[in-house]
Amino acid sequence: MDDNRDDVGAGRDGRPARPARLKDVAELAGVSLKTVTNVVHERRHVKAETRARVKAAIAELGYTPSLVGRQLQSGRSNIVALAVPRIDEPYLGALAHAVIMAGERHGYTVFTDETGRSDEHELRAAAGYPGNSIDGVIYSPLAVDPRRLADMSRFTPMVLLGEHLSEGAADYVAIDNEQSARDVVQHLADGGRQRIAYVGSNPARSSSVGQLRFQGFRAAVNDLDLETRDDWLLRCDRYTRETGAAMAEQLLPQIGEIDALVCASDLLAIGAIRTFIAHHVRVPDDVAVIGWDNIVDGRYLSPSLSSVATDLDLLADRTFEALISRIQGNRDPAAVYTVPHELIIRESSGPPTDA
Amino acid sequence: MDDNRDDVGAGRDGRPARPARLKDVAELAGVSLKTVTNVVHERRHVKAETRARVKAAIAELGYTPSLVGRQLQSGRSNIVALAVPRIDEPYLGALAHAVIMAGERHGYTVFTDETGRSDEHELRAAAGYPGNSIDGVIYSPLAVDPRRLADMSRFTPMVLLGEHLSEGAADYVAIDNEQSARDVVQHLADGGRQRIAYVGSNPARSSSVGQLRFQGFRAAVNDLDLETRDDWLLRCDRYTRETGAAMAEQLLPQIGEIDALVCASDLLAIGAIRTFIAHHVRVPDDVAVIGWDNIVDGRYLSPSLSSVATDLDLLADRTFEALISRIQGNRDPAAVYTVPHELIIRESSGPPTDA
DNA sequence: GTTAGAATTTCTAACGTTAGAAGTGATGCT
DNA sequence: AGCATCACTTCTAACGTTAGAAATTCTAAC
Q: How many whole angstroms separate alpha carbon B247 and alpha carbon B184?
């Protein structure tokens, strides 16, 4: 029976010292707490006259419900975390954008977190951000061995992007990586390319995206009876422009033998093209190059970069559907959702230019 | 005197139904709540034997403190929001990365939000995310008229990036945009460029970054007695590759007159270069091009892109210092913090190539 | 064997919200 | 008049944490 702190609310003159609470509204309107929540939640059983009075009080105090109070009460936050290694990678930035937009469509706020800094961050994400009252996690491990993530999120629903956990601990949404690689090889063969190099396999992680793409690549090369040599196949862990540039450096002696290069990501391809051009290797005339992710930068490169495109909006929607189903209690075994991919053919893998 | 819900904690066999609470730990260890918090917070006045018992209970139950409970209790969350228009813009992605890293150094978790979707989002950010128990906001308005943001965050400390509010409602951290533009012009003049075009001014917003850069540009052109013509000065609102490509299209008839192009952002420059190359305008031989932001993609472009670089780590650190000072109650008038910039000269504004 | 004082622990009220249960009038029906 | 029904409102206990105040136990000195 006490509890009067001064300077409540948002009078337009003196700055109020703190945000208004439900209780302040109730006192100003002269009603109980429950009546105010009833008004806030637009419930029946509130007389029009009372409702008006409460609404006026809310407006006068500039009241906004405290989400913390709500979370504590309800146990729900309507927040999901998106965990990506680095937000400044173009593909992951585009992915984050798509997920944020999809979150909005599905009534969720998306909290984007970077996990690439340390093992600690990665594990926190994998554990579902314990203590954080996150309703779910959308997790894109890029550099971590999924087998390390055995003790996955016990309480927080999770959907994986990018890396498939063989244990099937969580739902997984992605394109058909193997098929997309076959499509890439087919496209190059259609353009008359016969001797194709590959950058990005990493046999150490059998479930990795790069490995899946490599499997598809090798299968297609086999099926189409294309020539292949071991020193045309370069492995690398990091799919960066820098790595791509370094890998292309290694391929320079093979130029003249190879006539196409498949890179497991656009960043690798961009780095490779940079090296090629610097060494007067013409793209696509001498070597066709193609990557994955269809990042915007590829469109503005010269030559513009061919790439395997994922419909990120669709991927993000599927991801949310799966995640929401888990949030609502779905206990089925982990599922794999495949979203369609599309080959975007631009200059880098097209016919020779006139230049 | 009741309150026993089943399936607490993290027994390794059956899945526990919910995360363990402080109370569960207290009961298992046979002590009071306060003793458990004392252990959690490493306080004195806990017998070694008791502490061991509590720690064992914590480990057995896999207890993690609920941040929601803490926030409610303390009113602090140690979370700051970073509000940017779009996370998939390269510069903003790099900025977000730097801010997240700096946040970690300063003990804050950074929640990145996209505000570019709607006015509603922009205003929510400007109001300091009312109801969200955010300790502070780092706000980078790109497309909004700052004058609309009169009713700024009443309760949430805020630091602005990118756009300076003339009212001085909030601290502002940025490079010296005007001086950087002078440096750009000086550099081009040093390279023998005489007739320089500019893309990106927007006189409608006098405080905008593009406008500040334009002022510096014009002043330097004046000071150095360089030729200037109105149709060499193109205005635009959006600093995208697409806009840059369209602006360059408009400049094509002027090629031969102009010998350099200053773009208010790297994205504009990348779009412009793409258009130039497509029309066989050689960069830098026919036209030198330079931008701002030093985004990574510029390094791997051919020709690689000269740019004004900001030390983002430094900028993010300054931002946090300012923000934390406000969080701790600093009520000084809004300040402007300037971080150094650096001209990164690459091929696009260098001497003619051999090609 | 007391007792002051320190060391350790417990009790309890808050933080802001929500919703079930209980309470108050007013209305309509017999 | 008596009573059930309904609309509306209040009361209260939770959600998980924290920390001041109060209570208990221990230690050591007399």
A: 19
Q: Which pLDDT tens digit goes with each residue over A282-291?
A: 999 999 999 9
Pairing of strands A260-263, A196-201: parallel
Tokens of A316: 């993000």
Helix (DSSP H) and strand (DSSP E) numbers for chain B: 12, 12
> pLDDT digit string (tens) for A221-266?
999 999 989 999 999 888 999 999 999 999 999 999 999 999 999 9
Q: Distances from the Cα of A66 to the Cαs of A77, B131, B136, in angstroms?
A: 11, 4, 16
Closest CA to D8 C1' — which residue?
A: A45
A129 contacts B129 by C-beta, under 8 angstroms: no
Q: Which of B9, B7, B8, B14 is nearest to B61 (CA)?
A: B9
Reading the block at residue B249, the tokens are: 């299209």
Nearest CA to CA, how far is A274 from chain B (Å)?
Answer: 6
Cα–Cα distance, B50 to A23 (Å, whole number) = 40
Neighbours of B222 (CB within 10 A): 11
Residues shown for chain B: 355
**What are the b/e assignments for A299-316, b being 16+ CB within 10 Å?**
bbbbbbbbbbbbbbeebb
Rounded to two decimals, what is the model's pTM? 0.93
Q: Hey, is B46 helix, strand or coil?
A: coil
**Which site among B302, B305, B313 would you substitute to test the A interface, given the most A Cβ atoms closer than 10 Å to its Cβ?**
B302
Please give residues of chain A from 247 to 266 whose alpha-adjacent beta carbon (CB) lies under 7 Å from any atom of strand C.
Answer: none
